[in-house]
């Protein structure tokens, strides 16, 4: 399926931060509804599909389906509703959890969505562009997988990725994780990069820096406290990594995002 901009009509976008629980554990919508998770996790059930979603996952519910959900951790996410002329209902796999592997691009899209709070014509068009881009990312991931022989899809690395997401903010040892997979650290890095186009360390840093940005934006925590919440040894090390990857010091980033 190819997504075209005119086929989608966005009419709702709400950004929720650190939501501890849903007001209703079940709901039903008249439109397509997308839950795009930035942080935290929740359980969902749509039709016969049930699962758990966290950063890197989109959960898409078609119109007139019962959507059951329950938070597992405080949830930061984008809630988007749209109508589509692309007959998504007839397309296989366009409901439930849609996982994206290009985390830097995903993080960038989320950052722009957070900044677009208005509903003037220009802001709405930007939001529509970002929604389309999220769905195109899903399609591109699928096209890449469809072009590869089934034997190339590395289920062990899919499992390793889930472990990295779960352990990202802890004192994680890449060496120990590699050993638990029966691999040397070099083998683990090589196979993970082949599967996801980035090393395990790069993947972990993307997750940690996303959380660090949220905490810089939404709290007055010291850098050492933020580091402890994000899996870094101390504020000095976080500051060095943040400056290298984001292009500015954490203090500068915080001052730019505080109203």
UniProtKB/TrEMBL annotation:
Superkingdom of the source species: Bacteria
SMART domains the UniProt entry points to: HTH_ARAC (SM00342)
Record GO terms (molecular function): DNA-binding transcription factor activity; sequence-specific DNA binding
InterPro entries from the UniProt entry: Homeodomain-like_sf (IPR009057), HTH-like (IPR037923), HTH_AraC (IPR018060), HTH_AraC-typ_CS (IPR018062)
Domain HTH araC/xylS-type intervals: 147-256
Keyword annotations from UniProtKB, A to Z: DNA-binding, Transcription, Transcription regulation
Family matches, as Gene3D superfamilies: Homeodomain-like
PANTHER family (UniProt xref): ARAC-FAMILY TRANSCRIPTIONAL REGULATOR, HTH-TYPE TRANSCRIPTIONAL REGULATOR EXSA
Entry protein name: HTH araC/xylS-type domain-containing protein
Taxonomic classification: Bacteria, Bacillati, Bacillota, Bacilli, Bacillales
């Amino acid at each position: 399926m190819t997504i075209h901009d005119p086929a989608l009509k966005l009419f709702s976008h709400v950004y929720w931060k650190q939501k501890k629980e849903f007001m209703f554990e079940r709901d039903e919508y008249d439109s397509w509804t997308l839950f795009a998770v930035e942080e935290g996790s929740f359980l969902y059930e749509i039709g016969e599909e049930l699962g758990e979603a966290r950063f890197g996952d989109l959960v898409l519910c078609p119109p007139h389906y019962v959507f059951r959900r329950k938070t597992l951790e405080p949830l930061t996410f984008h809630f988007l509703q749209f109508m589509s002329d692309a007959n998504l209902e007839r397309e296989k796999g366009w409901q439930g959890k849609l996982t994206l592997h290009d985390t830097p691009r995903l993080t960038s899209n989320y950052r722009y969505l957070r900044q677009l709070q208005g509903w003037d014509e220009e802001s709405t068009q930007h939001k529509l562009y970002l929604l389309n881009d999220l769905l195109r990312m899903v399609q591109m991931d699928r096209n890449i997988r469809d072009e590869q022989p089934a034997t190339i899809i590395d289920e062990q690395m899919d499992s390793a990725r889930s472990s990295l997401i779960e352990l990202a903010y802890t004192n994680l040892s890449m060496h120990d994780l590699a050993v638990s997979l029966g691999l040397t650290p070099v083998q683990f890095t090589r196979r993970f990069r082949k599967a996801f186009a980035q090393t395990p360390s790069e993947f972990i840093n993307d997750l940690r820096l996303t959380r660090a940005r949220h905490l810089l934006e939404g709290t007055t925590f010291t850098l050492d406290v933020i580091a402890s919440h994000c899996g870094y040894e101390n504020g000095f090390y976080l500051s060095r990594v943040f400056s290298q990857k984001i292009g500015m010091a954490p203090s500068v980033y915080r001052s730019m995002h505080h109203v």
